[in-house]
């Protein structure tokens, strides 16, 4: 059921303008007005799901399939030698629109985006306790 206070639901419903570049029965993709790089697109499920905690696995799989198609289309049409997928679930992860979505960002140069984290490499052995904690969660 669309949530009409949600901008992505309004785009899906055709009540908000967008530049749609892909759609199927499960997902829609449109250009992000805030272009991180030329062609930056958002892929959203047609049904409203807030984030990873709420989206059914099957729906997430449909969104990922659409994102793969969109990434191929962007790379081919724009000549992008690389593509990043980006997802944020929750405010602390920088989610700003609370309708599940994937960013598909064409990459043209190593320097057209800055990584959001540093690449500190931890010795594998030092991660054993963390791995155990994660494996034990139910």
From TrEMBL:
Matches recorded under InterPro entries: Histidine_triad_HIT, HIT-like, HIT-like_sf
Database matches in SUPFAM superfamilies: HIT-like (SSF54197)
Pfam families: HIT
Motif (Histidine triad motif): 99-103
Domain of life, source organism: Bacteria
HIT domain: residues covered: 7-115
Name the UniProt record assigns to this protein: HIT family protein
Annotated source species: Nonomuraea rosea
């Amino acid at each position: 059921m669309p949530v009409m206070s949600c901008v992505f639901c309004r785009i899906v419903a055709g009540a908000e303008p967008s530049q749609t570049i892909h759609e199927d029965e499960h997902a829609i993709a449109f250009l992000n007005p805030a272009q991180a790089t030329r062609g930056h697109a958002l892929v959203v499920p047609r049904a409203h799901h807030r984030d990873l905690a709420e989206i059914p696995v099957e729906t997430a799989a449909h969104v990922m399939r659409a994102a793969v198609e969109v990434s191929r289309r962007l790379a081919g049409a724009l000549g992008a030698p690389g593509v990043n997928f980006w997802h944020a679930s929750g405010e602390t992860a920088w989610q700003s629109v609370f309708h599940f979505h994937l960013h598909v960002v064409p990459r043209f140069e190593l320097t057209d985006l800055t990584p959001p984290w540093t690449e500190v490499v931890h010795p594998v052995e030092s991660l054993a306790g963390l791995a155990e904690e994660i494996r034990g969660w139910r």
